[in-house]
Amino acid sequence: MTDNYNSETAWAYHYATKHSYTSIRANPHFLDRSNQPLPFKIYPTLEPLYLPVEVRPTGIAALSAIAESVPAKTNAVPDLEGVAQLLYLSAGITRKRGYPGGEIFFRAAACTGALYEVELYLVCGDLENLQAGVYHFAPAEFGLRELRTGDHRRVLLEAAGGESAVAHAPLTIICTCTYWRNAWKYQARTYRHFGWDNGTLLANLLAIGTALGLPAKVVCGFVDGDINRLLDVDPDREVAFSLVTLGHIATLPPQSPVEFSRLFLETVPISSHEEDYPLMREMHAASSLHSAEEVKRWHAQAPVPTSLPSAGPLVQLRPLSDAAMPRDPIEQVILRRGSSRKFDRTPITLAQLSTLLDRANRGIPADFLAPMGSQLNQLYLIVHAVEGLDSGAYVFHRDRGTLECLKQGNFRTQAGYLGLEQELPADAAVAIFFLADLRPIFEQLGNRGYRAVQLEAGILGGKLYLGAYAQRLGATGLTFYDDDVIRFFSPHAEGKSAIFLVAVGNRARRKS
Ligand SMILES: Cc1cc2nc3c(=O)[nH]c(=O)nc-3n(C[C@H](O)[C@H](O)[C@H](O)COP(=O)(O)O)c2cc1C
Predict the structure, then answer these.
(1) CATH number, domain at 398?
(2) What letter would DSSP give residue 321?
(3) Is the CB of 198 within 6 Å of ligand 1?
(4) From the centroid of its chain, how far is CA 221?
(5) 192 C-alpha vs ligand 1 centroid, how far in Å?
(6) Which of helix, strand or coil describes residue 87?
């Protein structure tokens, strides 16, 4: 059995999956379009239970929904319409685009390569118009397929080491990730994408949860094998990555059926053949937890120290006043979001940037972030065009609401290079890098800290997307040259690792 606290595997995975100028050229990867994975998991023998398609207006401004969360013990239970809304606005199909080889079904949250490797499963007690069961969400039909009948929440509670949010949640959504669906394009780097792509989806889910008045919590600590068995997924192909509790009730779930059996349900193969990247499965095994006691100990870890000294000149953020704050509701913003394909190099304002950073960084309710408000990733910015802020490199002090200038200058060319030689981070108004010191994270959270730090980055990145689109700006997630990013922000960033990148700016209008 692997030991979560022997972090050699996580370091080895991290190093082996870094991108660099030379690694990209040494390992050209050609996509076999004839073997492209299906973007959906299909259970051909199960009839879907169709979900209501009407999107109920929440009236909650996106900039509030991404910033706030409902207090943990607020009694609230989603009904079927609420469930539909949570699913549609986090993982539903919101746009379609034809291309010569077929059709892309774009989803509510951004995802690397539009490959959508994250599947959602529901585990609930009796809800209004939805009976207790374990369900798979099928975005193509916008329906649920019942995998198990009856209340199985006790299985989750035990697997999550007694975590209180799981104990009192009428509904928990399990997010799984399917290796090959993303590795077809991204090879072994896919395990990082699990965190990123699961994270952007969770940013939407948390925001909708808030808008519907549901307390929510992201749970990363659970006995992997127990959750995978409950869903009866093949763990060599698909693994549970995170849980999200939604709602709160005082009563605890009843005892589950003592033994639940294998389901042996047929699923449609996603490709004619799959390639295996053992490094990812090793990473997953090394970050797995094996017993409720181990989960309890993991949950009891002291917070990860992430203090950030400041020495350079500081600029105070100045978010928009309440009166000037855009109030577009969260569902509208999610439906108009899409990754910007081109930025026009025009400036955004310091108030817009301040609002974005302030609203996206107010804290995530997650079991690996105790006390609420702590954060594993630190934000470093390359500012190209922000009115009221000199161009240059900055680090964000979220506790003080300030930006510390690390160096001044025009770094558009460097930003483009760091973002894997793409134009987007060069043309944006600002490129926001997420960096983390993995050493204390591995010390406190072990290899599982690697899952947590990637997931947190995805959630924060997803909030940046929503915060940008709420202000009618554009945004896109991006990949990067790992060590060059650290060199660029050093000496301040020395010893840290690059985790994620989001570019924000004004979208270039398409020529008509
Ligand atoms: C973590 C992450 C990394 C991404 N990296 C890139 C990238 O390097 N280059 C790019 O053009 N788009 C990138 N994207 C954008 C995706 O291609 C886009 O999300 C996907 O095609 C779905 O489209 P949508 O975001 O418009 O819904 C990234 C998105 C995410 C979430």
Answers:
(1) 3.40.109.10
(2) P
(3) no
(4) 16
(5) 14
(6) helix
State which residues form the domain around 36.
31-251+262-299
In a domain, 376, yes or no: yes
HEC per residue, 392-443: EEEEEECCCCEEEEEEECCCHHHHHHHCCCCCHHHHCCEEEEEEECHHHHHH
Considering the domain architecture, whether residues 388 and 244 belong to the same structural domain is answered as: no
345 and 290 in a common domain: no
Is the domain of 137 the same as that of 217?
yes
Query: Do 346 and 463 share a domain, yes or no?
Result: yes
CA distance 104 to 272: 19
* Ligand 1 pocket, residue 87 CB under 6 Å: no
Residue with CA nearest ligand 1 atom 8: 478
The one-digit pLDDT tens for each residue of the chain (512 residues) are: 779 999 999 999 999 999 999 999 998 888 999 999 999 999 999 999 999 998 789 999 999 999 999 999 999 999 999 999 999 999 999 999 998 878 999 999 999 999 999 999 999 999 999 999 999 999 999 999 999 999 999 999 999 999 999 999 999 999 999 999 999 999 999 999 999 999 999 999 999 999 999 999 999 999 999 999 999 999 999 999 999 999 999 999 998 765 789 999 999 999 999 999 999 999 999 999 999 999 999 999 988 887 788 888 999 999 999 999 999 999 999 999 999 999 999 999 999 999 999 999 999 999 999 888 899 999 999 999 999 999 999 999 999 999 999 999 999 999 999 999 999 999 999 999 999 999 999 999 999 999 999 999 999 999 999 999 999 999 999 999 999 999 999 999 999 999 999 999 999 987 65
Show Cβ contacts of residue 208 under 8 Å, excluding neighbours closer than 6 positions.
58, 65, 85, 86, 89, 90, 330, 331, 334
pTM of the model: 0.98
Number of domains in the chain: 2
Whether 106 lines ligand 1, by a CB cut-off of 6 Å, is yes
Domain assignment present for residue 3? The answer is no
Q: Cβ distance 416 to 425 under 8 Å?
A: yes
> Are 343 and 382 in a shared domain?
yes
| Best probe residue, ligand 1, of 24, 99, 107, 111 (max atoms within 8 Å of C-beta) | 111
Residues 233 and 336 in one domain: no
Taking the centre of ligand 1 as the mean of its atom positions, its distance from the CA of residue 247, in whole angstroms, is 31
Ligand 1 atom with the smallest distance to the CA of 113 is: 17
Residues 294 and 390 in one domain: no
Residue nearest to atom 9 of ligand 1 (CA): 478
The answer to whether position 11 is within a domain reads: no
Clarify whether residues 488 and 348 are in a common domain: yes
**CA 460 to centroid of ligand 1, rounded, Å:** 15
Nearest CA to ligand 1 atom 5: 478
With respect to residue 20, please indicate whether it lies within any of the assigned structural domains: no
> Which residues have CB under 8 Å from 210's CB, separation 6+?
60, 64, 65, 68, 69, 70, 216
CA distances from 2 to 6, 108, 278 (A): 8, 36, 15
